[in-house]
Amino acid sequence: DTAVSQTPKYLVTQMGNDKSIKCEQNLGHDTMYWYKQDSKKFLKIMFSYNNKELIINETVPNRFSPKSPDKAHLNLHINSLELGDSAVYFCASSLGGDGNTIYFGEGSWLTVV
Amino acid sequence: DQQVKQNSPSLSVQEGRISILNCDYTNSMFDYFLWYKKYPAEGPTFLISISSIKDKNEDGRFTVFLNKSAKHLSLHIVPSQPGDSAVYFCAASDTGNTPLVFGKGTRLSVIA
To answer: Which positions in chain B touch A107 (Cβ < 8 Å)?
Structure first.
């Protein structure tokens, strides 16, 4: 069983569309994250949720809206997609948020054309 | 600004030899360091960690060394195996305050 699963794995969409990436973890963790790996290969945190509450919201356009219906799920919704949003988005989870070992999903490869 | 730097984008090593991957950091508040390994089309997987109270942590073929005064850590893999070929990310955290900060990664190629 996949510990952190995210769907879709690949997504090609046009500029201006709205899309969502879903993430679920079955590890019983209380903290979930979204990371973005950009073209320069940096893995940068976007959001962090602890027990469904937003803990970290880095400088991310407000077109990106995370939603956590429960502590096992953290979905990422992106409005009005732009070319620069093309990247690999990784969902992750950990037990606690204090730099504990983070477990990553396989990544969702988003291409905006 | 890059708080965690992996200055070598790639490294090639012969099978059986030692691989040494380096990482430098600038934030003196970081006190927990991790290495992640990433295969193509997969998410990063945790490899080994070290807290700032130690200067060495070993797990099988993998050893991480921490030099706090130099703000430098390194991952040693010995002996290197072809299956070790992957991208290795160094990450650091100021526990209790910040999330993990990742370096850009170093692509290791182990040649048979």
So the answer is: 41-43
Chain B residue numbers touching A92 (CB-CB < 8 A): 43
Question: What is the nearest CA distance from A63 to chain B, expressed in angstroms?
Answer: 22
Q: Do A99 and B102 touch (CB under 8 A)?
A: no
Q: Name every residue whose Cβ is closer than 8 Å to that of residue A61 and which is 6 or more positions away in sequence.
A: none
Per-residue burial over B61-92, b = 16 or more CB atoms within 10 Å of its CB, e = otherwise = ebbbbbeeeebebbbbbeebeeebbbbbbbbb
Tokens standing for B2? Answer: 């890059």
| B7's tokens | 């200055």
Q: Which residues of A touch B104 (CB under 8 A)?
A: 40-42
3-state secondary structure of A94: strand
Does any CB of chain A come closer than 8 Å to the CB of residue B32?
Answer: yes
Average pLDDT over residues A51-73: 86
- Residues in contact with A104: Cβ distance below 8 Å, sequence separation at least 6, in sequence order: A4, A35, A90, A91, A92, B36, B43, B44, B45
Q: Is A95 part of the contact surface with chain B (CB cutoff 8 Å)?
A: no
Q: List, for residues B51-82, the tens digit of each pLDDT value.
A: 999 999 999 999 999 999 999 999 999 999 99
Q: Indicate if the alpha-carbon torsion angle B80, B83, B89, B93 is positive or negative.
A: negative
